[in-house]
Amino acid sequence: MSNLKLPAAMYPAFQPDAAFAVGLNADNPFVETVPAASAIPASMEDATAAEERPARIASTTPVIVPLGVRHNRHFIEANTKPVDIAHLRADCVVPVFSKDNEVTVSHQSFIETVLGAAHRMFPQEVIDAPDIVVSHIIKGRIPEAIHKPVNQLLETDKTIYYERMAFCFEIPTVYEDVAGNRLNLSIGGVRAYNHENLYSKKTVEKFKVFIGFKNLVCCNLCVSTDGFKSELRVMGVQDLFDATLRLFQEYDAERHVKRMAAMEEQCLTEHQFAQLIGKTRLYQYLPTVEKRRLPAMEFTDCHINAVAKAYYTDENFSRGDNPEIDLWRVYNLFTGANKSSYIDTFLDRSLNATELITGIGRAIEGDAEYRWFVE
After folding, report:
1. What are phi and psi of 140, to 5 degrees?
2. Average of pLDDT values for 60-86?
3. Position 33 pLDDT exceeds 50
4. DSSP string spanning 155-183?
5. In DSSP terms, which residues pair with 233 in a beta bridge?
């Protein structure tokens, strides 16, 4: 798997300045700057061609796609609005901790910091611009407009920020193939201000960060345990950068791909799949004592209904004419259904899909932990 050789060396500490910490540093290399001429593709056709070249061509000049260029590959679909980083920087205020007026790490600073860690970890690879989605807009007014009627408000009188934000970007020169599906190495994160106590003094802030793969057939994200931190607790962007870089260094991409490839070798009969659908719906209503004896299953009825429908109708992963279905397709039915989740639960469910399907694979081999879901 030559495309999956990840650098393991430690790198010098990241040194942002105070302006970068709130995403306002015009000199930041990840904020609408023009790269060196040798790093700019002559055309979009050239940039596309660069994506198709495998990472093992050592002589290829690294290309960094500017932030103004994004692929229309949304990794999450429902309940969100796509935006670009320029909108976050120019049009959104940054929340503060109310008791001491200390600024939080802004959404744009979060994105820039993770991008910085990715460039440090993968200096020779193509790194695409991030796909950014937001939800739960919080509206306000400037002090001068407090007493204005709504119909007299000007755009300059209004303030906004988004309670929840998620982003994902691909590294298309690090990839593998599973069951004929190209998987690009992908990195991203989630920030949800509803998980912070903004009415207190400044304290640790919480972020979700992942490194995994995106299935280009359907844009489903594949997340593993060692590639996901569900709660990075940091005091600022320096801590965030260091923790993100450690996550990248600890992630075993080759093992992750092998686990996904193994799913293709195991199948569920129609009866077993029906048992899985039924048991996952029953799981949510189990008595607490019984539920504690079982592994976690975080998908709701709406998700399970989507999985059941896709079993017959999904363009890429339905059962087809064969009533049996391999676990790779089942896994993608679950990760596809997950794209309707809210931002703040999306990555946790992505990991849960991986754990659930690999557990069912062990249950087929006789392991007892997940046997309840298919017996």
Report:
1. -155, -175
2. 63
3. no
4. GGGEEEEEEEEEEEEEEEEEEEEETTEEE
5. 206
Note the pLDDT tens digit of each residue in 104-144: 999 999 999 999 999 999 999 999 999 999 999 999 888 88
Q: Give the E-state strand segments of the chain in sequence order.
A: 81-83, 96-97, 102-103, 131-141, 158-178, 181-192, 205-215, 220-222, 228-234, 267-268, 325-326
What is d(CA 361, CA 276) in angstroms, rounded to the nearest whole number? 12
Query: What DSSP designation does 145 have?
Result: G
pLDDT at 141: 87
Q: Are 212 and 230 in contact (CB under 8 A)?
A: no
Residue 275 has pLDDT above 90, yes or no: yes
- Identify the H or E element spanning 146: none
The two beta strands, 96-97 and 205-215, are: unpaired
DSSP 177-204: EETTEEEEEEEEEEEEGGGS-TTSS---
Q: Does the global pTM surpass 0.90? A: no
8 A C-beta contact, residue 118 and residue 127: yes
